[in-house]
Amino acid sequence: MIEEIYNYFNADMLYYWVNLGILPFWLILIFFPYSNLSRYFVTSIFPILMLSGAYIFILYKSYLNSYDFANNFSLYLSLNNLSELFTEKSYLMMFWIHFISINLFVGGWIVKDSQKLSINKFFVAIPLMITYLIGPIGLFIYWFLRIFYAKNINLYD
């Protein structure tokens, strides 16, 4: 049975399940940001543990398939090297899990920070949706919203 599960979760299937699995977290963040469900389920360690498990699984499968991890450091040498790395499905999957984990973490931070400043959840929904799709721009938009509610600009918090 374990072998069937192992064979079922190839890179394509893992991509499907990770994307499907992350949606409830984002829906809770966007529509119910101040609920206990968001506090205990989304902005806690739970989603990070789930995504870390998927990351470790793809690392393990890559290791068993003799993936050349040392080649990953070539991504810093040129854009062409980075492009070559993205032809490997396992590397692409590692990158994707990394990307959505950070976006979800930033979304959780936005919700927690907006609670401290008592920002209306309807105003926070827009930067959250943008953070889900294109993380840094959503964070940038939230930062502008935050300036109006905090009534000051801090370089640190």
Topology, pairings included?
Blueprint: H1 2-8, H2 11-31, H3 36-42, H4 46-64, H5 79-85, H6 89-116, H7 121-133, H8 135-150
Helix pairs in contact: 2-3, 2-4, 2-6, 2-7, 4-6, 6-7, 6-8, 7-8
Short description:
With 157 residues, the protein is mainly alpha-helical. It starts with a helix and ends in a 7-residue tail after the last helix.
How would you describe this structure to a colleague?
It is globular and about 55 Å long. The protein starts with a helix and ends in a 7-residue tail after the last helix. It has 8 helices and no strands. The model has no long low-confidence stretch (mean pLDDT 84). The chain has one domain. α2 packs antiparallel against α7 (121-133), α6 runs antiparallel to α7 and α6 (89-116) runs parallel beside α8 (135-150). It is mainly alpha-helical and 157 residues long. The longest helix is centred in the middle third of the chain and has 28 residues, at 89-116. It is 75% helix and 0% strand.
